[in-house]
Amino acid sequence: MNRQAQAAVLFLVGGAMLHAGTTSLYLRYVKAGLQPLLLAAGAVLIVAAAATAWYELRRAREARRRAETESDAGHGDVQDGHDGHEDDGGHGHREPRISWLLVLPLFALILVAPPALGSYSALRSGTALQPPLAYPALPSGDPVSLSLVDYAGRAAYGHGRSLGGRTVEVTGFVALDRGGTPYLVRMALNCCAADAQPVKIGLSGKLPPVLQPDSWLEVTGTYSGKRAEDPVNGGIIPFIDVTAARPVPTPKDPYDESWNQ
Amino acid sequence: MTIVKAPPAPVGRQHGEEPPQQGWQFTSTHGLVLLLLLLVVGQGPIRRALSTPVMQSWMTVFLAVVVQALPFLVLGVLLSAALAVFVPPSFFARALPKRPGLAVPVAGVAGAVLPGCECASVPVAGALVRRGVAPSAALAFLLSAPAINPIVLTATAVAFPRNPEMVLGRFVASLLVACAMGWLWQRLGRTDWLRPPARATYEGDGKGAAFWGSVRHDVMHAGGFLVVGAMAAATLKAVAPESWLRTAAGNPAGAVLALSVLAVLLSICSEADAFVAASLSQFSLTARLAFLVVGPMIDLKLFAMQAGTFGRSFALRFAPATFVLAILMSVLVGAVLL
């Protein structure tokens, strides 16, 4: 890859990072806290692209000027040793072919922009539910709005006592296992989607007639004593007794980042 | 540059210089434009082909690894360019002890000041070697930096609120492995295994040109290898079933080995691996310590980046030795502390 192409790739990668960082696109792949770093990295890459293009232009201009003076003088071999050495944009040391691979994430991010991890990944990994450290008092409101991970922790490890029989409202996406059991899932994330792990709750009670995997639902219901064992890792999957379910759009940050706080 | 149809060469061309900008040649710039055009024109069919759940999840994980690692890679590349251009080699000669045997632990402890994950440490270690630091000391830095910096240790403490000894175990085991690998390289390492990072010398250009030249080179180079590693990690995450792990968890030796291999294959950022380890609660603490010690030192992404920076014959020897030593040291530290 010559230096002009490198400048173009650097510019495009930097631009893609800025694009992802300024829209909510980056939240599909990494945690929210990385946003300033993403923007800074994108800016640095664009500056590097501009610097590369600028020095390349200057070098080409110098080379042309030298070629002219050389042809005027009639012998050009004298100055060559020094300059040919620096000239890694030319023939000697171009960047290896592996640099071309940088086009792949660019293409994936700009043209495809795959969605956040959904039911496929959720059913392949075991629930990552951990015993909560404490059960703080529920916020006010009826129904009380809880994160899916919060409800699952209270239901599985606190046996629902801290829920006090109140009606709760949780949001997540639908996943159906092979037997057809519906789960409401939220992927919990620490850094990026490569370490995202599902937290699952089972749905029982009054369910909508058709459940589409990966569609987002806001479920209203009460604590149910029913629980299941995750077939993948043997973790606890608590259930919720559903009284109402309402489709909602995919939230801006599709992951649960409560572990990061 | 593949020259398809060379114009009559002017005088300057005979010396292997940059060809003047005249006439039509097929260069990598044209190749890039052509490739991007093809992708944009063909995006409909390509998108349809990629819409199966397994491909979607593959691409999401692939992008996640790249997007997450890129800022840290850029940070490391900037640091490495600054080291290469603005810090004179004599600084390192003064800062590190003369005897390489002593320089190794000093460099290992110095790893604690590089905040970030393993993507930042590879270019910095490459720059250190180029600036005349003994390879054994630079390698100790390479191994310790991603594991013992304050950000990673804090994340470990947060992930294991009930087992603060995990933080100490991680720190001690990682530092021991880094120093042991440094000393091992000093005794057994041969310089011809370590490919001196090939690059143009920047003397004669201005400092600005040298700095940005180094940044451009490192991003293009290490970035390409990062993409390879991300593809490998995404393939594993999207294809291999997690239930395999369950069978390994029962046997103590099997558990340590399984989590060490998992750490290599998953290639998780060292700032996040503690949370993954915490969730693998069916495994013993020692096995999870091995996961935390092995992961930042050697994984698919790192192996690809090390091979790119130091050469394949180096990486093929260094990676297995690091892997074995990291497991042994984790078991040892685990037996004492956990």
Radius of gyration over C-alpha positions of chain A, nearest whole angstrom = 28 Å
Structural class of chain A: alpha/beta
CATH superfamily of the largest domain in chain A: Nucleic acid-binding proteins
Estimate the helix proportion of chain A, in percent. 25-40%
- Domain count of chain B: the total is 1
What is the quaternary state of this protein? heterodimer
- Count helical runs of chain B: 16
Q: Roughly what fraction of the amino acids of chain B lie in strands?
A: under 5%
Residue-averaged pLDDT of chain B: 81
Order of helices and strands of chain A: HHHHHEHEEEEE
| Total tally of structural domains of chain A | 2
Descriptive notes:
Chain A has helices spanning 3-22, 35-73, 80-86, 103-112, 119-124, 148-157; strands at residues 144-145, 168-176, 182-188, 197-205, 216-229, 236-247. The two termini of chain A are 43 Å apart. With 261 residues, chain A is an alpha/beta fold. In chain A, strands 2-3-4-6-5 form a five-stranded mixed barrel. In chain A, strand 1, helix 6 and strand 2 (168-176) form a beta-alpha-beta unit. Chain B has 338 residues and is mostly helical. Residues 1-21 of chain B have low confidence and may be disordered. Chain B contains 16 helices and no strands. Chain B has one domain (55-195, 205-337). The chains are: A alpha/beta (261), B mainly alpha (338). At the A-B interface, helix 1, helix 2, helix 3, helix 4 and helix 5 of A face helix 1, helix 2, helix 3, helix 8 and helix 10 of B.
Give descriptors for this structure.
heterodimer, A: 261 residues, alpha/beta, OB fold (Dihydrolipoamide Acetyltransferase, E2P), 2 domains, 6 helices, 20% strand, B: 338 residues, mainly alpha, 16 helices
